[in-house]
Design goal:
elongated; alpha+beta; three-stranded antiparallel sheet; 2 helices
Amino acid sequence: MKAAGFKISRTLRCKNVNVPGTLGKLTTAIGKVGADIGNVETVHIGHHYTIRDIDVFLDSERHLEKL
Protein backbone atom coordinates (compact mmCIF):
# COMPACT_ATOMS: atom_id res chain seq x y z
CA MET A 1 0.00 0.00 0.00
CA LYS A 2 1.32 3.45 -0.94
CA ALA A 3 0.07 6.77 0.34
CA ALA A 4 -1.10 9.27 -2.26
CA GLY A 5 1.75 11.38 -3.63
CA PHE A 6 4.58 9.16 -2.38
CA LYS A 7 6.74 7.00 -4.62
CA ILE A 8 8.06 4.36 -2.24
CA SER A 9 7.05 2.67 0.99
CA ARG A 10 9.19 0.83 3.50
CA THR A 11 8.68 -0.90 6.82
CA LEU A 12 11.21 0.10 9.47
CA ARG A 13 11.81 -2.23 12.41
CA CYS A 14 12.67 0.03 15.33
CA LYS A 15 14.01 -1.02 18.73
CA ASN A 16 13.65 1.73 21.32
CA VAL A 17 14.24 1.98 25.04
CA ASN A 18 11.13 2.04 27.23
CA VAL A 19 11.30 5.70 28.16
CA PRO A 20 8.28 8.01 27.88
CA GLY A 21 8.52 10.22 24.81
CA THR A 22 10.79 7.92 22.80
CA LEU A 23 8.13 6.99 20.23
CA GLY A 24 7.18 10.66 19.89
CA LYS A 25 10.79 11.64 19.18
CA LEU A 26 11.07 8.87 16.59
CA THR A 27 7.87 9.83 14.76
CA THR A 28 8.91 13.51 14.81
CA ALA A 29 12.25 12.59 13.22
CA ILE A 30 10.43 10.63 10.50
CA GLY A 31 8.22 13.62 9.76
CA LYS A 32 11.14 16.07 9.67
CA VAL A 33 12.68 14.30 6.67
CA GLY A 34 9.40 14.56 4.77
CA ALA A 35 8.14 11.02 5.26
CA ASP A 36 4.57 10.07 6.13
CA ILE A 37 3.73 7.35 8.65
CA GLY A 38 1.28 4.57 7.92
CA ASN A 39 0.76 1.60 10.22
CA VAL A 40 2.60 1.24 13.51
CA GLU A 41 2.65 -2.31 14.87
CA THR A 42 4.12 -3.27 18.23
CA VAL A 43 6.09 -6.49 17.76
CA HIS A 44 7.52 -6.88 21.27
CA ILE A 45 7.36 -5.08 24.60
CA GLY A 46 10.14 -5.95 27.02
CA HIS A 47 11.25 -4.53 30.34
CA HIS A 48 13.92 -2.35 28.76
CA TYR A 49 12.89 -1.89 25.14
CA THR A 50 10.03 -2.02 22.63
CA ILE A 51 10.21 -3.24 19.02
CA ARG A 52 7.82 -1.73 16.49
CA ASP A 53 7.34 -2.04 12.73
CA ILE A 54 6.61 1.39 11.28
CA ASP A 55 5.41 1.78 7.69
CA VAL A 56 6.75 4.95 6.10
CA PHE A 57 5.97 6.56 2.76
CA LEU A 58 8.68 8.60 1.03
CA ASP A 59 9.35 10.50 -2.17
CA SER A 60 12.78 8.98 -2.77
CA GLU A 61 15.51 6.71 -1.48
CA ARG A 62 17.31 9.89 -0.38
CA HIS A 63 14.59 10.50 2.19
CA LEU A 64 15.10 6.94 3.42
CA GLU A 65 18.85 7.52 3.77
CA LYS A 66 18.14 10.56 5.97
CA LEU A 67 16.20 8.35 8.35
